[in-house]
Design a protein that fits this description.
about 100 residues; alpha+beta; four-stranded antiparallel beta sheet
């Protein structure tokens, strides 16, 4: 069953698409029919930079089980990081020349 519910979050980071690396501005999630995966429904995640147009997009289609496993892996990785590492990770490095 499609939920037709879309969630959008502002994110900071980078993604690599067909044209190379780009800065991310948002992540969008929704549960719907996939475009490519052979499953009836998937959790679809788009990592995008809206100001750079459709080429600045990385799309992922995951089964429910895979999406839940990914959430657990993310929580585990963040929980295992030392507090000092987490504090430094949220500070953007200086721009490269």
């Amino acid at each position: 069953m499609c939920s037709h519910l879309t969630e959008k979050a502002s994110v900071s980071g980078s993604g690599k698409g067909a044209g190379g690396w780009f800065r991310l501005s948002h992540a969008v999630t929704y549960f719907d029919h996939p475009y490519h995966s052979p499953y009836e429904h998937t959790l679809n995640i788009d990592f995008v930079n809206e100001t750079e147009g459709p080429g600045a997009r990385v799309a992922v289609e995951l089964t429910e089980e895979s999406a839940r496993a990914l959430v657990a892996c993310i929580e585990s990785a963040l929980g295992a990081a030392r507090p000092a590492m987490r504090d430094r990770a949220s500070v953007a490095p200086p721009e490269r020349a």
